[in-house]
Specification:
3-stranded antiparallel β-sheet; 8-stranded parallel barrel; globular; alpha/beta
């Protein structure tokens, strides 16, 4: 047993200190980024936000809607082969990840889709990215799909970030337990404060020309800005995109003024009782549920939320004088708030 005494930070623990700037307007900043993937040499340009591959949020409708903003979606794992083939023939599929786990059935399904439609982005998704089996799966997937950009996770430390990149991942997904409907930290005691995980994993990844995606823990647009300031190349979110027309959650209606009005939508973690009953017939005897089911307010089209998210990032960039999104880590100084006021981290 050992104890680490240096501070580990979540988004709520810090604010970004403003800096002098020559920027005259939020319109003068550039929120798109261009990336080159280390293992393929391929490039992608856009606003680096990804809808999580949860079955309520990681939908084809969400992928199409976010694509209009240059953002992406990781599709959930439970679409039928025929649906996936049809979707990946669409232009919007250029901004979508095909998601899968580590089972043989998962990979057989991917190969079946790929025979009929081009798969250029793959999301290898497990709750625990620290197993040797997962590293081997990343290696095997890289060998089988040498031209595809691969995102793999989840991990929260620099050593495993490096291991996954060396195994063939272009992007490492960072986060254990920060999501709004994830209960891993409560059920297992395992996790890592999300901002510190991003900072440490980004440092490890960038040294190998890899990229990181901060997955989870984002509750407001300011958290997205903090993630980018901490070195995240991409951010992935579920809860902030839940409750929209493009989601597939069950909607609850109320009678108001003689009309049936949508007021809330179901949202749940993919390790929750709800998800496991839906896809696996229930929670296996050897494990516990590590997710919860909640209702979120019905929010209408995702368009308004995306404008808020992009607008918040634009405003943060003007406060610190970052003309381009890729400049945010160099321009960001974090100040700890709460019990340890005025402690400063960053440039």
């Amino acid at each position: 047993m050992r104890i680490e005494n240096d501070p580990k930070l979540d988004f709520r623990d810090v604010l970004i200190r403003p800096k002098r700037s020559t920027l005259g307007s939020r319109a003068h900043v550039e929120v798109e980024r261009s990336f080159r993937f280390a293992h393929t040499g391929g490039e992608w340009t856009g606003f680096p936000l990804i809808a999580a591959n949860m079955d309520v949020v990681g939908t084809m409708a969400m992928a199409r809607a976010l694509s209009r903003h240059g953002a992406m979606a990781a599709l959930h794992k439970h679409y039928a082969v025929e649906e996936l083939i049809a979707f990946f023939r669409e232009p919007e599929a250029a901004n979508a990840f095909y998601s899968l786990g580590t089972t043989e059935a998962d990979h057989d399904k991917l190969k079946a889709v790929h025979k009929q439609a081009p798969i250029t982005k793959i999301c290898l998704d497990v709750a625990n990215g620290y197993t040797e089996k997962f590293v081997d799966t990343v290696k095997a997937t890289r060998e089988a799909f040498p031209e595809a950009a691969i995102m793999a996770g989840n991990v929260v430390t620099g050593d495993m970030t490096e291991a996954l990149i060396l195994a063939g991942a272009d992007i490492v997904k960072v986060g254990i337990g920060p999501g709004s409907v994830c209960t891993t930290r409560k059920m297992t005691g395992v996790g890592y404060p999300q901002l510190s995980a991003i900072i440490e994993c980004a440092d490890a990844a960038h040294g190998l020309k890899g990229l990181v995606c901060g997955d989870g823990g984002l509750t407001v647009p300011g958290d997205v800005a903090k993630a980018f300031g901490g070195g995240a190349d991409f951010v992935m979110m579920g809860g902030m995109l839940a409750g929209h027309d493009e989601c597939e959650g069950d909607i609850r209606y109320e009678e108001r003024g003689g009309e049936r009005v949508p007021v809330a939508m179901t949202f749940y973690g993919m390790s929750s009782d709800t998800a496991m009953k839906k896809y696996a017939g229930g929670v296996a005897r050897y494990r516990a549920s590590e997710g919860k089911t909640v209702e979120v307010p019905y929010r209408g089209p995702v368009e308004g939320t995306m404008l808020d998210l992009i607008g918040g990032v634009r405003s943060a960039m003007t406060y610190i004088g970052a003309v381009r999104l890729k400049e945010m880590p160099k321009r960001t100084t974090f100040i700890m708030v709460g019990s340890q006021l005025n402690t400063v981290f960053g440039s």
